[in-house]
Write a structure and sequence with these properties.
It contains eight helices and 14 strands. By secondary structure, the protein is of the alpha/beta class. The chain has two domains: about 100 residues, no CATH class; about 180 residues, von Willebrand factor, type A domain (Rossmann fold, 3-Layer(aba) Sandwich). Helix 5 links the parallel strand 8 and strand 9.
Amino acid sequence: MTGGVAELATRTPRRLRRLLGVAAAMGALPSLAAAQAPPPPPTFGAGIEIINLNLSVTDARNNFIADLNPSDFAIFEDGIRQELSLFTHEDLPISMVLMVDTSASMEEKISVAQAAAIRFTSTLRAQDLAQVVQFNDRATTLQPFTNDHAVLEAAIRKTQASGPTALHNALYVALKDLTREKKVGELRRRAIVLLSDGEDTASLVNDEQVLELAKKSEITIYAISLRPNRPQDRLRQEFSQAEYLLTALTRETGGRVYFPNALSELDAVYERIAEELRTLYSIGYVSSNARRDGKWRRIVVRVPVREGTSVRHRLGYYAPSS
């Protein structure tokens, strides 16, 4: 696909033309070798309220679609068509929190989980950042944000299984940390990648609080639940509380939950997540609704020019309040 860091859609709002023109002049992010210093990520001026979305677009066979243009997308907010202002399919920098469940039930799985997580973080590039968090009855940051593969590997190898599970607490902390890491105007994809095998047994934060915080963020959540998700359970809608929360979180934020049937599938799941993070479309628009009423606004993005496509993205946002 052609285009720089930001491509203008047709009829770009006047107040964005100068801003986005500067960004486009910066050119596409180059592909860097590990020994090269990463370029500074593209930034946009403060005071411009752009609704940013990361889109995963797949075909009927669940293959990622990578050849779409700005005019191929249709954006709706509360049913009203919006004007696309920002578009890129560049491989943008990523900030990620890698979360590993280290409750007692993970004891026999932890070595395989460590190896898969290490291979996953080895795919990060010089401009990417990752934080490692383990959680049982408490969430512990084993390594703050870094792009050093060796440091990340050492942190992952420190994970040890013991105690109950405080899944809600850990997610709440991770969302807060990743939100604080965000710099004003910076164009960077943010994600939480979570591995867990059980229900919450020790949190002070409830699932509604976690879901509400996630909806207020621009963070995409990917979850791997090691509890088998049997077809008969889906038919009877007998999700456990943890599975229900992970499904809701990933759906609201535009991510995905995976239910591998065996530990041997972990590598393939992590590879799929890594591929998705590299193939996301990043788009933005300025809402036609100027009211600062703090209300929830539902977003729908479609690709009408392609039949059989599936588009995942965060499902909405809260309008600013005066």
